[in-house]
Automatic annotation (TrEMBL):
Compartments, as annotated in UniProt: Cell inner membrane; Cell membrane
Family: Belongs to the binding-protein-dependent transport system permease family. HisMQ subfamily.
Domain named ABC transmembrane type-1: residues: 19-208
UniProt GO BP: amino acid transport
Function: Part of the binding-protein-dependent transport system for glutamine; probably responsible for the translocation of the substrate across the membrane.
Entry annotated with the keyword Transport: yes
Pfam families according to UniProt: BPD_transp_1
Name of protein: Putative glutamine transport system permease protein GlnP
Length: 222
């Protein structure tokens, strides 16, 4: 068997454009996931608030307990039954973002709970309300501690984003499948796609490590 990468490299620009779309949809989904995760994570801190805690827990169970592909199909194929037509890119961001938010919420909750309880008590003794103590004292420290696990979530999102090609989004995988449909060089195309994903995740890992090392050097991460 002879490998022929020439058809793949002939359309390499299309793969690069697809890689850009992959990064864009992943970044948007991560921002959405962080926003949802922050709200759900805080909502699950106090079981005494039964309604809020119950809603957040139900969201967590639903989105962590069902496949991402099924969730993407619900956004893209299910909503039109209610006359809700969203662009494929938006459906991809919503699907990835809501799925990621369930995992980010546990990162948020764990980071907040890792901050020493005495700091909350000290803030309350200074006359701060619970909300002020959370916003001014607890969250800034927790956000710094979230960076390493959020980096892992970002890398997972990059890889999971390959599924959005099934929504006709022109991401890296979708562009690769177009090349295969013309050249019939499946193995070569998937090898190049895998290499591009590897470069994206490796570059992301290196950037995150540098950020974490700087934070450690500054004494901000314990």
């Amino acid at each position: 068997m002879n490998l022929d990468f020439s058809p793949v490299f002939a359309d390499f620009d299309a793969l690069l454009r697809g890689a850009i779309v992959t990064v864009e949809i992943t970044a948007c989904a991560l921002l959405l996931g962080c926003a949802i995760g922050l709200l759900v994570g805080i909502g699950r801190l106090n079981p005494q608030r039964r309604i809020v805690y119950g809603i957040c827990s139900a969201y967590l169970l639903a989105f962590r307990g069902t496949p991402l592909l099924v969730q993407l199909f619900i956004w893209f194929f299910g909503l039109p039954q209610f006359d809700i037509l969203l662009p494929a890119f938006v459906c991809g961001v919503l699907g990835l973002g809501t799925y990621s938010g369930a995992y980010v919420s546990e990162i948020v909750r764990g980071a907040i709970q890792s901050v020493e309880r005495g700091q909350t008590e000290a803030a309350r003794s200074l006359g701060m309300s619970g909300g002020q103590a959370m916003r001014i004292i607890i969250l800034p420290q927790a956000i710094v501690r979230m960076i390493p696990p959020l980096g892992n979530e970002f890398i997972a999102l990059i890889k999971n984003s390959a599924l959005v090609s099934l929504l006709t989004i022109h991401d890296l995988m979708h562009e690769g499948q177009k090349i295969i449909s013309v050249s019939y060089r499946s193995l070569e195309t998937y090898l190049v796609i895998a290499l591009i994903y590897f470069v994206l995740t490796t570059a992301t890992t290196m950037i995150l490590r540098k950020i974490e090392h700087r934070l450690r050097a500054g004494g901000m991460v314990q």
